[in-house]
Amino acid sequence: MKKLFLLLLLVPFIIVMTGCEEDPTEAIGAPNALQLVGATNGVDLVLTWSPSSTVDIDGYKIRFEGTEIWDGTATTYTHVAPTLGEYEIVAYLGSDESDALDHDTEDDVATGTGTIFAYYTTGQSGYGWNLSTGTGAVYSFTTGNAASIDFYYDADDDFTSADVYSGDFPNETGLHASSTSYDALNTVPSTGEASYYNYITPSLNDTYALIVKKDRSYGNFAKIEITAMDGTANSATFRWTFQTIEKWRRID
Predict the structure, then answer these.
(1) How far apart are the C-alpha atoms of 29 and 100, rounded to whole Å?
(2) Which tens digit of pLDDT belongs to each residue from 119-170?
(3) Domain 32-99 coded CATH 2.60.40.10
């Protein structure tokens, strides 16, 4: 009888223990919709994201190249003078973290080459970039291509900002002759630190920093190096690097 009595006592205990089992922890909503833009000085980088869908989180953490650089409750952060690299942003509650919002700024830099001719010879004298993809392309110098052309090779053998031609060409480009070699130029000078002109006369092996303003507003930065000049064909060939993050001068 004693054994049966003990067994009967254990049954409700087992039921109680089973009923007290905790529900699985609900996943923490990840931050999303990351936006990047250069700070006022053009060197720092401002990160802004949409908040987690989980209301009662403790905050957010940012890791850069695997190292935690920030912990806070805001949905914006200014990274001081970063190099190119990978960010991870997570929401957290206690020791639990959401999935990471990832972004590698190396993917925001595009590179390529181009050859343009003085417009009085072939018409293939315009060059311009797509701000979203960083893709560069050659254009014939016509008003139909005006919105795509950032600079062109003009009759005086100069690289000239497209907006100089006429009001029909809305994109303004500033060009600055750099004393730093193309490969060593990782942060182009600001417009306040150096003179950017609306035209330059390109010379073989010279490097130039550019600020490209579509429709004369804001600006993206780039660099080019003249790799070939052909006086007979009136052409200039160059390689380039273009930063698709607006206002950020870090390009390499």
Answers:
(1) 10
(2) 877 779 999 999 999 999 999 989 999 999 999 999 888 999 999 999 899 9
(3) yes
